[in-house]
Structures are given as C-alpha cells and as structure tokens.
Design a protein that fits this description.
Blueprint lengths: L1 H12 L8 E2 L4 E2 L4 H66 L2 H12 L24
Antiparallel strand pairs: 1-2
Length: 137
C-alpha cells in the first residue's frame, strides 16, 4: 500500500520520488525546490524594479516642480524690470521730442544756463531772512 501511495504522490507532484529522499522515521518527503525559488525571485525582482522606478519618477517630479516655482519667480522679476525699462524709455523718447521744439530749448537755456536775449535785461532779487525781497522794503 505504501508503494501505491508513493506513486500517487509522485504523479501528483510531477516528480519521481527517490527512496533515498524519503526520511522513513519522520515520514517526510523532500522535493527539489530550485524551480520554485527561481519563479519567486523573478517576480520579486520585478516588484523591486517597479518600486524603484516609481520612487525615481516621484523624486524627479518633485524636483521639476520646485524648479518651475523658482523659474516663475524669476520670470516675475524680469517682467517687472522690463516694465520699468519701458517706462524709462518712454520718458526718454518724450524728452527727445521736446528737444526738437524751439520753445523748450529756449526755456532750458533760460532756466538752467541763465541765458537771455540780446535786448533783455535780467534782474536778480536777493531774498532776506524772512523770505521778502529787498525791493519790497
């Protein structure tokens, strides 16, 4: 009966059991497990690689998000600087247009350089300590 039992066990497991591999005292059957270990190792390796790839992409995404925020701040600063330069440029263009006007040139010559026409007389009044002119006393 035990011979039939051994054959049934060996047919179910797909491996012929050797009598030398059977521990008669404990009645334990030992089968080769190399095939099972290889299948588990391949699956475990795939899971580890998938987790590592996921971790890599998460770190990459976080770094790119941080870099995007820094670039947006830099862009805002540059846009503000461009706005200031454009305003300054507009003022300078207006100044150039005024310099082509003879009345503006005459006013600049009178106010900043103290120039007068040949038939004009220029009067300077001294201010006193109270802010009144000398001619009003």
């Amino acid at each position: 009966m035990s011979g039939l039992r051994n054959k049934i066990l060996s047919l179910r497991q797909g491996v012929m059991i050797n009598r030398s591999k059977i521990n008669r005292q404990a009645k334990i059957v030992r089968l080769p497990l190399g095939k099972w270990k290889q299948q588990g190792t391949g699956r475990r390796l795939k899971i580890i690689l998938a987790v590592l790839a996921l971790l890599y992409f998460c770190v990459l995404l976080a770094f790119q998000g941080w870099r995007l925020i820094a670039l947006k701040r830099n862009l805002a600063d540059v846009e503000q600087e461009i706005s200031l330069v454009r305003d300054r440029n507009e003022l300078l263009l207006q100044e150039i247009e005024r310099l082509h006007s003879l009345t503006y040139l005459e006013r600049l010559a009178r106010e900043e350089l103290g120039m007068v026409r040949p038939d004009e007389i220029l009067f300077f009044f001294r201010e006193t300590a109270e802010g009144q002119s000398a001619g009003e006393r």
